[in-house]
């Protein structure tokens, strides 16, 4: 069977600086990966590239055996979903409007009871008319989980998905990801510093080994004091 996601020899540059080089990965159905590494090593940059939201300097990326980069030949945008570390919402619109809008942007549509059920599942019951601006950070994140439960993507690319969540929210996140993996064979790739999430993932990849040596500038606190 073809892998859900594969990438070969990815190089990421920021300006003239090489952030990551020679990164390759094959992700099959139901596999879970934790991408770890120090602040600024390139986890978010890598996930955004795997989601097709930005471009690598070098490399080849395939999603469901269709090319994402260098030439984009993806048939269905909803194959993979990127959960940003800061959920992007249209803040002057309601919770329900944001959920519908997000799902529609992938060409999908659900019924009102389905949207309501998804909101209820993530603890946002009776908040569908609330303006997104008035949600807390954790509630905004829960709203992005509601979209996941509806869309059931093949691949979830989640950037620090438990940031800003209370203990129950973290548990909810794990339950949603576990059920996508178990019942829909979704592959999950998570960039995180959260030990619980890292331990949940079957595979752990430290990005540090793909950071060129000259970029590893450790801060010497003693020298600063
Ligand atoms: N658009 C951009 N313009 C300039 N520099 C950028 C841009 N995006 C990212 N960078 C730089 O690239 C590096 C990697 O950023 P990235 O957000 O990928 O790191 P990260 O590993 O996710 O960090 P953290 O653990 O803090 O979330 C950082 O030094 C950052 O300043």
Automatic annotation (TrEMBL):
**Source taxon at top rank:** Bacteria
PROSITE patterns referenced in this protein's UniProt entry, alphabetically: ABC_TRANSPORTER_2 (PS50893)
Family annotation (Pfam families): ABC_tran (PF00005)
InterPro entries cross-referenced by the UniProt entry = AAA+_ATPase, ABC_transporter-like_ATP-bd, ABC_transptr_haem_export_CcmA, P-loop_NTPase
Give the Gene3D superfamilies listed for this entry.
P-loop containing nucleotide triphosphate hydrolases
Q: Which GO terms describe its molecular function?
A: ATP binding; ATP hydrolysis activity; transmembrane transporter activity
Q: Which UniProt keywords apply?
A: ATP-binding, Cytochrome c-type biogenesis, Nucleotide-binding
Q: Example GO biological process term?
A: cytochrome complex assembly
NCBIfam families, A to Z: ccmA
Show where the ABC transporter domain sits: 5-223
What is the protein name stated in its UniProt record? Heme ABC exporter, ATP-binding protein CcmA
